[in-house]
Amino acid sequence: SITCSLIALLSLSAPGVVSLVVPQPNINATVAQNILLSVEYSCRGVATIEWKHVSSWGTTKIVEWKSGNYVNISTVYKDRVTTFENGSIQLLNVGMRDAGYYFITVTEEYGTNTYGTIIVNVYEIIYEDLHFVAVLFAFLAAVSAILICFMWLCNKSLHLFQKKTTHKLTASTTEEIELETIEC
Question: Where is the signal peptide (predicted)?
Answer without folding.
Answer: 1-19
